[in-house]
Design a protein that fits this description.
- The chain is of the alpha+beta class.
- Among the domains are: about 160 residues, no CATH class; about 80 residues, no CATH class.
- The radius of gyration is 22 Å and the shape is elongated.
- The termini are far apart.
- Keywords: 4Fe-4S, Cobalamin, Cobalt, Cytoplasm, Iron, Iron-sulfur, Metal-binding, Oxidoreductase, Queuosine biosynthesis, tRNA processing.
């Protein structure tokens, strides 16, 4: 659509959008154009290396991911939004990670699934935009379509893509969700964020499975988040020991990032821990039957795993846990009625305790 808005009108509307976003509880907002030429080249090179593993959706839609106007015809601007989600101090996260009998869940998944909450906020923002431009074309995306959200956020000035391939903001670290509004309104664009990683290699050095194979380059096939969430089948045996007690995702690269000293705790009640997922033992979670799993993970991102893969992940963590009667008994009790996938991981876990636990047969 052709607009007759003058530069001063567009500048005023741009300022209003940012004010509205703040009033809606969004942590930050920026605006960019649709040129993702550099990001497209990097994506194609990454796919060519096979680093996406089983995530076929990363290549399924061709250039729609890197050319916004192909996904949503008429798009000329993207409004990129951040929403902080860190539910507790990093010291608490580190205590859980350091206790091999407790389950570590990525901080983003401790509370309710963020998709609906962020989508509602962005949809309200669209409604406010249409009070000024009632025929505006606007489409909200929250991890719901082929969108290069991090390159768009960097171009919109919300932060830079760090060496761990996550977005980092100078004043907020990296504990936030991203969402977008595609629009045809020619709003004024923000300046792209500049890289401030410098010589730091903390994220690369700390990765348990060495998934960050070079600065700004992630082999997802080695990443614990991929292994515990995206991977449908068997977790490669040579990576299981390095997973430790991480049963859903991994935050290590963000926890060590110096910029996360500026991270801000969330103000959203929905993102606070539920079902004791911030303190539960591995054995307690492994004992959930399917009905309990479905009930405790209602409204959670974890439910997408399904009960079988949830147990698969915990079985690996139990294999890495200190040997004791409770761990071995929990594994043995699930051995006979397990699916082939789960049984394989339980057998592996029991083998880790064979030498040090005389009661294991």
């Amino acid at each position: 659509m052709q607009y007759t808005l003058q530069h001063t009108q567009l500048a005023l509307l741009t300022r209003k959008i940012k004010t509205w976003a703040h009033s809606l509880g969004l942590s930050a907002i920026g605006i960019t154009d649709t040129d993702l030429t550099d990001a497209e080249a990097k994506l194609e090179a990454w796919l060519a290396k096979g680093f996406h593993g089983d995530m076929g959706y990363m290549e399924k839609h061709g250039t729609k991911r890197s050319r916004p106007a192909e996904l949503e015809p008429g798009t000329t601007r993207i409004i990129s939004a951040r929403l902080n989600y860190l539910p507790e101090s990093l010291a608490q996260s580190e205590r859980i990670l350091a206790d091999p009998e407790r389950a570590f869940v990525a901080r983003y998944a401790l509370g309710r699934d963020y998709h609906k909450l962020l989508r509602k906020r962005l949809q309200k923002l669209v409604e406010l935009i249409r009070t000024e431009v009632n025929n505006a074309d606007c489409r909200v995306y929250v991890d719901s379509a082929p969108v290069l959200e991090k390159p768009l956020a960097q171009k919109a000035g919300l932060g830079w893509i760090g060496k761990h391939t996550n977005l980092i903001a100078r004043n907020a670290g990296s504990w936030f969700f991203l969402g977008e509004i595609y629009t045809d309104i020619p709003l004024l664009c923000d300046s792209p964020a500049q890289d401030h990683c410098g010589d730091c290699s903390a994220c690369i050095d700390c990765c348990p499975t060495q998934a960050i194979v070079a600065p700004y380059l992630l082999d997802a096939r080695r990443c614990i988040s991929y292994l515990t969430i995206e991977l449908q089948g068997s977790i490669p045996e040579h990576l299981r020991r390095d997973m430790g007690n991480r049963i859903f995702g991994c935050d290590d690269c963000m926890q060590v990032c110096p910029w996360n000293r500026f991270a801000q705790l969330t103000r959203e009640i929905d993102f606070l821990p539920r079902a004791s997922l911030d303190s539960a033992t591995l054995v307690a979670l492994f004992n959930w039957d399917e009905a309990t799993f479905l009930q405790r993970t209602e409204g959670s991102a974890i439910r997408r795993l399904g009960h079988n893969r949830w147990l698969r992940n915990i079985a690996v963590a139990l294999g890495n846990a200190p040997t004791n009667a409770g761990v071995v008994t929990a594994l043995q009790e699930r051995l006979e009625d397990s699916s082939p996938l789960l049984r394989e991981h339980i057998v592996w876990a029991l083998q880790q305790h064979r030498k040090s636990y005389p009661g294991y047969q």
